[in-house]
């Protein structure tokens, strides 16, 4: 080759390279700064919500794709806002604000509820705002000031910065290109095998660890693709239609009134070797007294959530269906849009009047529509019957006012009809946050553990709320004992409380509760107490001391929350009330707890692996739930 040939080649190629550079330069001039800003915003997000940032950074270094999957959404949002607004500083600022807010929300939720930010939380904006109002005024003021200041900066950036001139076609191409890239990239976020291929720091079944190991942005978008309930493998609707076709065959003479109450954040955390109530009122005084009665059955239920998710426990108990096996992060009530087969509907079919009481807003978790769908004849909500100014306590309607409503509605009922009543109440008084919730409170416990003043007050506030709930449970008990009407009392907690210091109390006070510990410690995070008690008049209809023997309850007293209503029906001699209930009772006797991948058998053995026969039995329950939600016609 002569020396002239390379020179001639360069002469020919240089003009083309110049044209390419001229074409690429405007894009690179925009994309490169935005890329580095996107990297900085991703780093900020990780710094806000990752407890072990260095471990996440190590994961990113070992798996560059993981880093890319966290950075690219930030970059695409910046590009989209840039093409829309034509202002770079505004686009960067708004994107940074949105993702920082997302990280802060995740950090708060993970701390208080040991659950990360989920896409479904966006559907509960009204609920979140209602809870936010209960936070201390100073906290709300600082937060509001910060948001206003940030918005002012954004407005200034939008008004004062000179926008870049785009040809209309170039602008539309830019917006279209970003949206197309997002659509194609979403296949990566939707891939379960890809998500599972990345390592998890700590317990892989603990969702907070998944977020901490894979990054908030990637994990959040993956969850957005996993919300829809999918038809289970091997599901055949006809099989369950045949099962549901069985007629109700309950002995209609055994129909006591039933008062079922779900206590907000009601737990037995007061039972701890490092905490003493000597010289103070035991927060569980009445609860323990009722449990000690001969005509009582008590234990613990394994609920679907920790620190929140009240409606999921409601659904589990009333529907006898397992939220955990829905395969969606949406609240289970989100899937009830028509008449639905649940405990109140079944009781109504055998002559009960059904009533729901909740001293909270009717729209909270869409109860105003869900309750009638489940078979409640009448519903009482905050808007209907409660005066917050007169009956509020700790920012919510008091348990005393809720029990007053139970008494009032029951007296009205027995005056007008001889039909038995099923009265279901969800209390709200002891909802968090607990900082100064009930104002200045005197000491109500002692401890041999060194706690800060803030930690001491948190427990003091929480135990005060439990004690008030327990007092009202005692009122219900005494009322029922004195009543000539046959009454069965059912009481249980919806979830453990979510404290602002996360799970610190559990380790400080040596509770056997640990989201990353043994199977027993993991399950303990979701356990709340329950009791079922009957008065003498109800005992004449059906003696639960006898039926409890046939129910074969486990010695440790722990059952899944969705077994509670079937257990109640069995104790009251209502076999045949529901084919699902009858099936659940048989499953419970072999597998009292089926909580995701944690199982407890009839001998109290904890395991995350069960026999194929038992796995198939659980699968039937999961498929039956799908039938009831999506295929059953009532």
Largest sheet: 8 strands, mixed
CATH superfamily of the largest domain: Alkaline Phosphatase, subunit A
Number of strands: 15
Q: In CATH terms, what is the fold-level topology of the largest domain?
A: Alkaline Phosphatase, subunit A
What is the domain total for the residues? 2
Secondary structure elements and their pairing?
Layout: H1 4-49, H2 53-62, H3 64-85, H4 88-113, H5 125-132, H6 137-160, H7 168-190, H8 192-197, H9 207-214, H10 216-224, H11 237-244, E1 257-263, E2 275-276, H12 285-291, E3 296-302, H13 310-319, H14 343-349, E4 353-357, H15 367-374, E5 378-380, H16 382-385, H17 388-391, E6 392-393, E7 396-397, H18 399-416, E8 421-426, E9 446-447, H19 453-482, E10 487-493, H20 504-508, H21 519-524, E11 527-534, H22 536-541, H23 544-551, E12 558-560, H24 564-571, H25 579-590, E13 593-595, E14 598-600, E15 606-607, H26 612-631
Parallel strand pairs: 1-8, 1-10, 3-12, 4-5, 4-8
Antiparallel strand pairs: 2-9, 3-11, 6-7, 10-11, 13-14, 14-15
């Amino acid at each position: 080759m002569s020396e002239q040939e390379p020179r001639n080649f360069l002469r020919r190629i240089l003009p083309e390279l110049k044209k390419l550079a001229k074409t690429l330069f405007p894009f690179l001039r925009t994309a490169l700064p935005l890329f580095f800003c996107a990297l900085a915003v991703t780093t900020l997000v990780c710094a806000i919500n990752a407890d072990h940032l260095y471990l996440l950074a190590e994961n990113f270094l070992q798996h560059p794709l993981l880093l890319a999957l966290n950075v690219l959404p930030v970059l695409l949002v910046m590009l989209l806002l840039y093409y829309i607004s034509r202002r770079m500083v505004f686009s960067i600022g708004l994107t940074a604000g949105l993702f920082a807010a997302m990280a802060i929300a995740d950090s708060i939720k993970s701390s208080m509820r040991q659950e990360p930010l989920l896409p479904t939380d966006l559907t509960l904006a009204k609920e979140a705002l209602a809870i936010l109002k209960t936070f201390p005024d100073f906290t709300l003021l600082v937060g509001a000031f910060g948001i206003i200041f940030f918005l002012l900066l954004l407005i200034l950036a939008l008004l004062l910065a000179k926008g870049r001139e785009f040809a209309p076609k170039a602008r539309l191409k830019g917006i279209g290109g970003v949206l197309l890239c997002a659509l194609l990239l979403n296949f990566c976020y939707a891939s379960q095998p890809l998500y599972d291929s990345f390592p998890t720091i700590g317990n892989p079944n603990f969702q907070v660890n998944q977020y901490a190991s894979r990054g908030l942005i990637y994990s959040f978008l993956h969850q957005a693709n996993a919300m829809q309930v999918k038809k289970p493998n091997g599901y055949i609707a006809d099989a369950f239609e045949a099962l549901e076709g069985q007629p109700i065959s309950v002995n209609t003479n055994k129909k006591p009134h039933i008062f079922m109450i779900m206590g907000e954040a009601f737990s037995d955390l007061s039972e701890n070797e490092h905490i003493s109530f000597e010289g103070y009122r035991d927060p569980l005084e009445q609860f323990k007294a009722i449990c000690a009665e001969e005509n009582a059955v008590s234990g613990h239920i394994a609920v679907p959530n920790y620190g929140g998710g009240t409606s999921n426990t409601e659904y589990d108990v009333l529907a006898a269906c397992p939220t955990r096996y829905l395969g969606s992060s949406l609240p289970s009530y989100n899937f009830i849009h028509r008449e639905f087969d649940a405990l109140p509907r079944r009781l109504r079919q055998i002559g009960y009047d059904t009533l729901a009481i909740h001293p909270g807003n009717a729209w909270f978790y869409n109860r105003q529509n869900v309750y009638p769908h489940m078979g409640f004849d009448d519903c009482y909500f905050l808007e209907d019957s409660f005066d917050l100014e007169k009956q509020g306590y700790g920012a919510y309607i008091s348990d005393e006012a809720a029990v007053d409503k139970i008494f009032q509605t029951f007296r009205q009922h027995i005056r007008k009809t001889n039909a038995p009543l099923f009265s279901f109440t969800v209390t709200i008084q002891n909802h968090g946050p607990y900082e100064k919730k009930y104002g200045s409170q005197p000491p109500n416990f002692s401890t041999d553990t060194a706690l800060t003043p803030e930690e001491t007050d948190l427990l003091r506030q929480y135990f005060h709320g439990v004690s008030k709930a327990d007092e009202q449970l005692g009122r219900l008990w005494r009322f029922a004992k004195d009543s000539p009407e046959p009454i069965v009392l059912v009481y249980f907690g919806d979830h453990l409380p979510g404290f602002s210091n996360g799970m610190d109390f559990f380790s400080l006070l040596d509770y056997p509760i640990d989201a990353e510990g043994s199977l027993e410690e993991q399950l303990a995070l979701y356990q709340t107490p329950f009791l079922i008690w009957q008065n003498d008049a109800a005992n004449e209809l059906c003696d639960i001391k006898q039926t409890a023997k046939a129910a074969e309850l486990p010695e440790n007293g722990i059952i899944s929350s969705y077994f509670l209503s079937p257990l109640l029906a069995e104790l009251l001699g209502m076999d045949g009330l529901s084919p699902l209930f009858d099936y659940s009772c048989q499953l419970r006797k072999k597998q009292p707890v089926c909580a995701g991948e944690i199982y407890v058998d009839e001998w109290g053995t904890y395991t995350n692996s069960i026999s194929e026969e038992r796995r198939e039995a659980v699968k039937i329950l999961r498929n039956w739930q799908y039938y009831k939600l999506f295929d059953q016609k009532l």
